[in-house]
Amino acid sequence: MTDKPRTVPVQSATFTPAVNAEIRRAAATGIYDIRGGGAKRRLPHFDDLLFLGASMSRYPLEGYRERCGTDVTLGTRYAKSPVRLDIPITIAGMSFGALSGQAKEALGRGATLAGTSTTTGDGGMTPEERGHSRLLVYQYLPSRYGMNPADLRRADAIEIVVGQGAKPGGGGMLLGQKISDRVAAMRDLPAGIDQRSACRHPDWTGPDDLEIKILELREITGWQVPIYVKIGGARPYFDTTLAVKAGADVVVLDGMQGGTAATQDVFIEHVGMPTLACIPEAVRALQDLGMHRSVQLIVSGGIRNGADVAKALALGADCASIGTAALIALGDNDPRHEAEYKALGTTAGAYDDWHEGRDPAGITTQDPELAARLDPVEGGRRLNNYLKVMTLEAQTIARACGKNHVLNLEPEDLCAITMEAAAMAKVPLAGTDWYPGKPS
Amino acid sequence: MQVIDLAETTLRDMNAALQAQNGSTNQTAWQILNPRGAHALAVGLDAPLDVTVAGPTGYYCAGMNARATVRVAGSVGPGVAENMMSGTVIVEGDASQYAGATGHGGLLVIHGNAASRCGISMKGIDIVVHGNIGHMSAFMAQKGHLVVCGDAGEALGDSIYEAQLFVRGSVKSLGADCIEKEMRPEHLTALAKLLESAGSDADPAGFRRYGSARRLYHFDIDNAY
To answer: What are φ and ψ of residue A153, in 5° steps?
Structure first.
């Protein structure tokens, strides 16, 4: 045997170990992968933006000493009773069914302590959730599971869900493992069977119909509460325009990093647009209609910290919304459960089989023993802490930019560190006054 | 009899007057004049009222009704009695799309025909249509009964769960997982009661029953289209 030099083994950048494993899994099972969460792929995101801060040409505010407001009012267009939040961060819609009752209660407790709202989800409103949420947004979804006029009147706002970022154009499927007797009863279906959520509403088609549907909901609720319209990040300029035309008080815009309880991985990773790319288009639509700040914009999908919140507001949003991050604050994917994650064939931080109902953290489950692991009081305390930190972070940045309210942040406060982010956010590449596509 | 003339009263004031009776009231008889196709008429009621709408309506008439009886002396637009919880809605004419959509309870009677998607996602409502129904009716129907004295269009009961369908005339086609089922004595009894409630003298023995084959209850890739 000669000592002839050989090429080193080279793994394909196209056929990566993960890609190959998925091919083998598909070949073995004949079924696509279903999982929870949002897009995991690397996307242009808020990390690709930086704040410029104040210096000679801008006047900063003193940290801790000079006031920087964080309150937000949602639903000022038509509602007699708009939603007033102390902080510019809300909790996104997540269903009882996808989440345990304890997790929903913890979200309500934490949101209430922080002075903000939480949101129901597919499956209706539970008494625990209403009881522990000072401000509760009631989702109006295609499935209409659990929908009833009594709960509608108990809500502080109504959110008509047209789409969500993880799967714009898609419905849902809550697998039978999570359909306990209580979940089944709330949804008027047999226990233990897979429950499909339709991708379209059953009694309206298109924005002209939606306008009439909004009229009906306002008539039932006496025009008291705001009507939000939630859209997935697909065609944000046109979707925002049509939502406003249909009469929305608030547009909720969810980018592809936004989570879901259960959807095909191919859907999550390959349909929709990054949150960063959605915001400027939605803001442009509102500005073209003369409705920016009159119809409020809530942005969700990959919001993780106060910097993300501040960047979303600077791009023109009125409020940010968190789902996945709130679950992590409660204990989802915590390394302290690593042994159990390993037993499930995964690892902390990567666990996404939320649809199977075996969550060691007791959050995405209906198993009574697992669900009992989450203390709603402690969970609420942790979520409140996290929301407080996010708010302080956003205030810190706003003061550094010389703003006495977080809503005064503006695109001029930002620069981008990648070409992609500059093009999507429509803010200059750092060190230049240019971004791709900038009108000459 | 309380009379509200929509030629002189706004929709908001009309609905507010009816909704003000929610709870208990002794003003139970109401008549709505000049509806002229208005949308969202008599929605969100929750009292034992007897409301007559003297003419045709637009979308979502009697939407989310509870306990009230709403009679429409005319035809109705899409989504009549959508998400009804209880009570009775009677349409003397025809109904457009989505009649009784997602209804949880109560009785919807349509003396004429109903268009497509009648009873879509129904969750416990009983619907009796004296005439025919359009395509994709009872799509994803979960609970309750849909009785059709005439014919049914294409894809009846597609992806149906536990709702029970009774059709006297022809069915153009059945949707995915919807099959004809044996009509047993208990079904004939239930059907007779529904027909009587809806003012129909049709013979239950002349109907056929349809329901779920329950093959879609657990996700199977081979069932995907």
So the answer is: -75, -15
Q: Is the dihedral of CA A320, A323, A327, A333 positive or negative?
A: negative
Using the Cβ of B177 and the Cβ atoms of chain A, whether some distance falls under 8 Å is answered with no
Report the residue of A143, A154, A188 to disrupt the B interface, i.e. the one with the largest count of B CBs within 10 Å: A188
- Tell me if B32 sits within 8 A of B41, measured CB to CB: yes
For residues A85 and A78, what is the distance between their CA atoms, to the nearest angstrom? Answer: 17
pTM for the full predicted model: 0.96
Q: Is A416 helix (H, G, I), strand (E, B) or coil?
A: strand
Contact (CB<8Å) A149/B58: no
From CA A318, how far away is CA A283, in angstroms rounded? 10
**Chain B residue whose CA is closest to A153:** B44
Contact B98 A188 (CB under 8 A): no
**Closest-CA distance of chain B to residue A32, Å:** 8
Task: Give the type of residue at A302.
Answer: G
pLDDT in tens, chain A (440 residues): 578 999 999 999 999 999 999 999 999 988 888 999 999 999 999 999 999 999 888 899 998 789 999 999 999 999 999 999 999 999 999 999 899 999 999 999 999 999 999 999 988 999 989 999 999 999 999 999 999 999 999 999 999 999 999 999 998 777 777 788 888 888 888 888 888 888 999 999 999 999 999 999 999 999 999 999 999 999 999 999 999 999 999 999 999 999 999 899 999 999 999 999 999 999 999 999 999 999 999 999 999 999 999 999 999 999 999 999 999 999 999 999 999 999 999 999 999 999 899 999 999 999 999 999 999 999 999 999 999 999 999 999 999 999 999 999 999 999 999 999 999 999 999 999 999 999 98
d(CA A187, nearest CA chain B) in Å = 8
Cα–Cα distance, A417 to A392 (Å, whole number): 24
Chain CA centroid to CA A303, Å: 7
> What are the φ/ψ torsions at residue B171 (nearest 5 degrees)?
-120, 120
Identify the contact set of chain A against chain B, taking CB-CB distances under 8 A: 30-32, 143-144, 147-150, 152-153, 173, 175-176, 187-190, 193-194, 196, 198, 202-204, 209, 212-213, 215-216, 219-223
Yes or no: say if A175 and A189 are a contact pair by the CB < 8 Å rule: no
Chain B CB contacts of A148 under 8 Å are: 64, 83, 85, 104
B115 in contact with A at a CB cutoff of 8 Å?
no
Phi, then psi, of A30 in degrees rounded to 5: 75, 20
Report the 3 state secondary structure along A200-236.
CCCCCCHHHHHHHHHHHHHHHCCCCCCEEEEEECCCH
> Which of A219, A225, A227 to mutate to probe the B interface, most B CBs <10 Å?
A219
Query: CB neighbours (10 Å) of residue A7?
Result: 5
- B114 close contact with A: CB closer than 8 A: no
Secondary structure class of B178 (helix, strand, coil): strand
Provide CATH code, domain B2-215: 2.160.20.60
Please check whether the domain covering A42-169+205-331+374-425 is classified as CATH 3.20.20.70: yes
* Dihedral of alpha carbons A136, A137, A142, A147, sign: positive
Test B78 with A222 for CB contact under 8 angstroms.
no
Closest CA to B121 of B154, B158, B152: B158
**What are the residue boundaries of the structural domains of chain B, listed by start?**
2-215
Taking the CA atoms of A262, A264, A270 and A272 in sequence, report the sign of the dihedral they define: negative
Cβ atoms of B217 and A193 closer than 8 Å = yes
